[in-house]
Design brief:
With about 350 residues, this protein is of the alpha/beta class. The chain has helices at about 40-45, 95-100, 150-160, 175-185, 200-205, 220-230, 245-250, 275-280, 295-300, 320-330, and strands at about 1-5, 15, 25-35, 55-60, 65-70, 80-85, 90, 110, 120-125, 130, 165-170, 190-195, 210-215, 235-240, 255-260, 280-285, 310-315, 335-340. Strands 3, 5, 6, 9, 10, 17 and 18 form a 7-stranded mixed β-sheet that branches. A 6-stranded parallel β-sheet has the order 13-12-11-14-15-16, sandwiched between helices. It has a 3-stranded antiparallel β-sheet with strand order 2-1-4, with no helix packed on it.
């Protein structure tokens, strides 16, 4: 089969012929319909963030497709079924899985990181982790539900605990940020979007933001948000992964407010300990999505409660995958999410 193989930061990606995966009795072989292009992959390719499996490795963790083969123990799928694969596979038996926190599973396995991913014609996956995919959602565009939509769903619903009538501020209106906006809006919150590009802020309004702040032209974002909300937001989501914007998001909150850190950064962040204590502030991390939440998220997409198809702005053939990452590098304001179609 054809695959895009990652050889490390110095070499990057190469399109090669590799053996088709051999499935175990409890696995399915999925013919990949599409796989989303994510900043996480760019961190591996450009910034040297290490993968658990050392290169060579097939990247890609936002996959949808059709069941091509089933293992001898698989009962819930048949050849030809449409499926969505979550970005992360969980063990199901560690203390975190057994207490409903599968997204921080001790033994988690990530496609395109711990095992070969879906920038390929086929990918093998445990049947227990795959989800049936409804006909109402376009299969190719629906691949981004695996991460770009599921990650902010977990952040908004489970970590941010967003309620109807809340004021929410979202820092970063990229592929994950716009979904945090539309999910918070779908939860009944009034959302303020923060970015440095007017085109991104216009997109944010189309996804449900009631107010926007351009941090480049209005550098005191906290003051602007406090004026809009009459004292500060209930919850702030930082999707960028930058210490400065994490601090700025924290400064947008009212007393008793909640900061949810979704963006990745290897750098330390300085926040006021006295304010956290005296005003009972909360600082919370958010990683991925629990498997048990995918059915609800898929149903929201199926019934049109959230947009999916509109979020995919570019499609690339597998052999053009480097063009997809160039688009991500160049931070084109018109780009929300790209997908690769093997």
């Amino acid at each position: 089969m054809k695959a895009s193989v990652f050889y490390g930061k110095e070499i990057g990606l190469k399109i090669e012929d590799v053996p088709k995966p051999k499935i175990k009795p409890n696995e399915i072989l999925v013919k990949v319909a599409a796989c989303g292009v994510c900043h996480t992959d760019l961190h591996y390719i450009d910034h040297g963030v290490p993968t658990f499996k050392k290169p060579p490795l097939i990247l890609g963790h936002e996959a949808s497709g059709w069941v091509a083969e089933i293992g001898s123990e698989v009962k819930d799928f048949k050849s030809g079924d449409k499926v969505l694969l979550p970005a992360v596979v969980t063990c199901g038996y560690c203390e975190y899985c057994r207490t409903g926190r599968e997204n921080i599973c001790k033994n988690m396995v990530m496609f395109g990181n711990t095992i070969d991913g879906a920038y390929a014609e086929f990918v093998a996956a445990p049947a227990k982790d795959a989800f049936h995919f409804p006909d109402e959602i376009p299969l190719e565009e629906g691949s981004i539900i695996a991460d770009a939509i599921s990650t902010p769903y977990h952040a908004v619903k489970n970590r941010g605990n967003v309620r109807p009538g809340d004021w929410v501020v979202v820092f970063g209106c990229g592929g994950v940020g716009v979904n945090a906006i539309q999910l918070a809006a779908a939860s009944g919150a009034s959302v303020i979007a923060v970015d440095v590009m007017d085109a991104k802020l216009e997109l944010a309004r189309s996804m449900g933001a009631v107010k926007t702040v351009n941090a480049q032209t209005d550098p005191d974002v906290g003051k602007a948000v406090r004026k809009i909300t009459g004292g500060g937001a209930d919850t702030a989501f930082e999707i960028i992964g930058n210490p400065m914007t994490i601090q700025a998001a924290f400064n947008c909150l009212r007393a008793g407010g909640r900061l949810v850190v979704v963006g990745y950064s290897e750098k330390d962040v300085t926040l006021s300990a006295s304010r956290i204590m005296f005003r009972e502030m909360e600082v919370i991390g958010s990683l991925g999505c629990r498997p048990c939440d995918y059915p609800r998220l898929i149903e929201m997409a199926r019934t049109g409660k959230i947009k999916v198809k509109e979020l995919v702005t570019s499609k690339f053939k597998l052999e053009d995958i480097n063009k997809a990452f160039d688009l991500l590098r160049n931070k084109d304001p018109k780009t929300i999410r790209s997908i690769v179609i093997p």
